[in-house]
Amino acid sequence: MLIVTILPGIGTTYLDSHFLPMVQRFISEARTRGVNLTFNEAFRPSGYQAILRGDPAAITPAAAGSSLHEAGFAVDVNFDSLRNIPGGMTGDQQRQAILAAATAAQLSWGGQFVHPGPDRPHFYYDPGGDRQALVRQAQADYRRITGRQ
User: Fold this and answer.
1) pLDDT digits (tens, 9 = 90+) for 6-27
2) Are 53 and 82 in contact (CB under 8 A)?
3) Which of 16, 38, 61, 104 could be a cystine partner for 9, CB 3.0 to 4.6 Å?
4) How confident is the model at residue 145 (pLDDT cuts 50, 70, 90)?
5) How many angstroms separate the CA atoms of 99 and 96, rounded?
6) Which residue, 146, 144, 132, is CA-closest to 46?
């Protein structure tokens, strides 16, 4: 079931009720490792996913109806643009801390995607089963919560 939450960087969004505690742990684990996560994307309505699919600047967007973002099981974080902090962590150290935090939170990383290519900002949990059914349910929840079609 999709629920409302607030994530640093994007504010109000929607995540699956089973995924949200994993994301909360991801945030906490990153913080204990010295990194404050900033999110760029989370839940996507299917119409937006279709637009991304046609955007040549988008990183490896899945076809509408098949993205874990549409099902509320994926987030994108500020990852590749992390810079060295004077007197603090390097960008590479921050990225390593984020990867360790994701592992501790039992999230998978899109940076290991082979086809169509790596998606380094993408962190997700795949609950298995019928992906399209998950998307349909999350999209129905979104419409119910927001009143949008």
Assistant:
1) 999 999 999 999 999 999 999 9
2) no
3) 38
4) very high
5) 5
6) 132
